[in-house]
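Give me C-alpha cells for this 814-residue protein.
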Amino acid sequence: MVGVACRLPRAPDLKAFWRLLAAGQHAIGETPAERLSAAGQRPGEALPAGEPGVRFGAFLDRVDRFDPAFFGISPREAAAMDPQQRLVLELAWEALEDARIVPERIRGEGAGVFLGSIANDYSILTHRSGPDAIGRHTVTGLHRSIIANRVSYTLGLTGPSLTVDAAQSSSLVAVHLACEALHRGEATLALAGGVHLNLDPRVALGASRFGGLSPDGRCFVFDSRANGYVRGEGGGVVALKLLASAEADGDRIYGVIRGSAVNNDGPSEGLTVPSRAAQESVIRSAYERAGLERSEVQYVELHGTGTAVGDPIEAAALGGALGEARPDGDPLPVGSAKTNVGHLEGAAGIVGLLKALLAIEHRQIPASLNFRQPNSEIPLEALGVRVQDSHGAWPHEDRPLIAGVSSFGMGGTNCHLVLEQAPAAEPAAADPPTEPLPGPIPLALSAKAEPALAEAAERLATHLQADPDLDPTDIAYSLVTTRSAFEHRAVVLGKDREGLLASLTALAEGTPSADVLSGRAKDGKLAYLFTGQGSQRLGMGKELHETDEVFAKAFDAVCEQLDPHLETPLKELIFAKGKKAAAKLEDTTYAQPALFAIEVALHEALAERGLKPDLLAGHSIGELAAAHVAGVFDLADAAKLVAARGRLMGALPAGGAMAAIEASEEEVSESIAGKEAELSIAAINGPRSTVISGAEEAVEAIRSYWKEQGRKTKRLAVSHAFHSPLIEPMLEEFAEVAESLAYSEPQTPIVSDVTGEVLGQEQATDPAYWVSHVREPVRFADAIATLQAQGTSAYLELGPDPVLCAMARECLGE
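Here you go.
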C-alpha cells in the first residue's frame, strides 16, 4: 500500500480517523434533517413506531457538494450522478496524490480500479421523483457498475475496472481482487476500496425489520448487549503496487498485504445465517497464502456487526482458526471499527483495513468501544481471544507487526486479509550539511478554480503550522514534483516558516502581497526570448553562479570557449567592480560575449530543472544564443562567431547614433526616405516602437521631426550605430568567420528576427544568413506575431533584465 485516502464520519482524512480511534470516540448521531427531506419526509416527522433503529447513523457532511469542473464533468451530468461516484472520484485522486503519483502521468497506463459498493439509494430517490427526473445521464449516473468505470474513464486508466458487489464484504473482496490482478500482471498499479452512502432513511426499514439495527444507536460487538449495528457511510481507497515495484520506485510504503482469501458459506442454516466452518476456513487459507504461522498474528480487526447471531459464530470461527494456536495466557486482541463509525456495509472492509493499518503504523491498538461484559455465548478465554476494550500498546513489538482483517457478506461471501508492517527501509547515507537557500523558498500551488486556490493555501498553512518539524524546502520540492499543475496557479515566497505562513495567509484571504505571485495558465507553447545588447551590467549572474552548480558549470564552460578570443577573461570582467570595468563591459567586444554566456548558462540551469521550450527567438545577438541551444552550431563555433561579431563591431570607428521613435514601421520608413545611405530602421520592437540607426546628424534630424509631431523619442546609449549602413565595413571579414563554421539543422524551432518567420533549415545552416543578421533590421514585433500564431501562450526571457517580455506585451496588446 503506497497511497491511502478516506472520507469517514467525523474523519475526513486518515489522520482524523486515527484521532477519532485513539480518543475512543464515535461519530454516531441522529439522522440529519436534510436526509429526511431528501427521502420525502418532513424534518421532525415521527419515524415508524417500533423501529427506532432508523433514527441513528454515522453520516458524512455535505455529500451533496461536488466540484464537477475539476473532473471535466458538466453540472448537468454531475447532478445525475450517484454521489457515490462523485465521492470515489475524489478518493481515487487523493490516494494517487498521497502515493506521490501525479494522475496525468499514468493516463493511458494499465492501472486497475476495484471498488466495492452495494447501495443504490440515489437511484431510488431519483426514480421516486418521477419521470421528469430521468434524463440522458441517468443510466451512467445511477448504474453501480459505473462507480469503478467512472474512475478509470476520468483518470484514463486502461487496466481492469470492476465494481464489486459481495454484500458487506465487497470492499475487502475488491482489495483481494486487486492484489490478484497485480500478481497476474493484469495491472501495474491498482486503486482498491469501497464507497457507501445512506441517502434514503427508508432503506433502513428493511434492515430494521430484519432485526439487524441496534435500537440503542450503538454497536456492542461481542458484548452481552449486542442487538444489532448502526449504519455508517463514507469510503476509502488504497493505491497498491507489488512490493518489489514499490521498493524499486522508492515509494513510501504504508504496509504490505501478505495474503488474502475469499470463499462462500455454501449451504448453511439459511441464506443470511453465517457459517462458522466457512469463516474458519477462509481465515486459515489467508495465513497459508501469506506464508505465516497462525500464531504470528497479533491483532484481528473483526467483521464485528454486534448482532446476537453473527457475533458468536464469528468468535467461534476466529477461535478455531487462530485462538487455538495461541499460547496460554496470550489471548488474541480483537476489535471493530463499527463501534466508532458504524457499519459502512459495502465499504466496511476497507474501513477495517485502514484501522488495522493505522494501528500498525502507530504501534497501538485502539479500543473497541461499548464492551462491558462478553456475550454468554462467546467463551472468550476458551477461544483464546480478548476484546481490546481500551487503547493500548501493540503486543510483542519485538516481532514483525501482523494484523488480520475480516469482512463477511450477507449471502455468505467471506474475506480475510493479512496485513504486515512495511519492511524496514535501507538506512539512507548521511547527507552533508546543507546551507540555507540564499533566497526565498517558493511554494507552488494550483487549482482548477480561483476559490479552490485560496482553500489550498489555507490547508497548506494549517499543515505547516501543525507540524513544526516540517522542512519548508521539502514541502516546496514535493509540491512541484508530486502534484498536478492546474490552470489557476500561485507561488508564495518566504525566507522562513513565518514568512511562508504570512504569504499563504495573504493568498487565502485575497490580500495583496509582494510575496504572492498568481496567474492563470493557458494551453499553448512556451517560447524562450534571448535578450539583445544593452541589458548587460556588472555582476549579472554572480549570485546565481555562487549558488547554482549547473549554472556555474555551464557559465564557466562558455567562458572557457570565449576567453581565447578576448584579451580579458570574461568571468573576471563580468564579476568585477568599478567604473573602469563597467565601461569595458559596455564595449561591444565584451558586451555581446557576456550576454551570450549568461543566456546559455541560464538555459542549461532551466533545462536541468526539466524546463524545455517549444520555440526560440532572440533579439539581435540573442538569436545567436538561441541558435546554439537549438543545435545550429556547437559551443566552440558559437563562441568563435559571437566573439568575432563583438570584436569586429567594436573595432569600427566610434560614432553614429540610435534612437527609439513612437511610430510604426511604415511611418518611420516614409520619414527616412531618401536618406538610406546615412541611416536605416534598426529594429521594429512593437506596433508603435521603431528604432533608427546611422549617422548621428541624420538620426538627430529624424528624431527632432518626430518630437515636433508630438511623438515620444529616446536617444539610446550605444557605442555604435548597430544594424545600419555604418556596420557594413565589418561584414566581409565577419563572413569569412561565418563560412569557417560547421552548421546543423535546428532541433528546436527558431523564429528569425530578420524575417519574422520560422527559420528554415537552409537559412539556419547558410553562413550568409548570419552575415545579413548583423545588418538587417531586427523584426521583433513580427517574430512575436509568428510565435503567437504558432500557439505560444507563455514567454520566458533569458537575460539580465526583462526588457523583451515588456516589448512582447506591447506587441500583443496585453
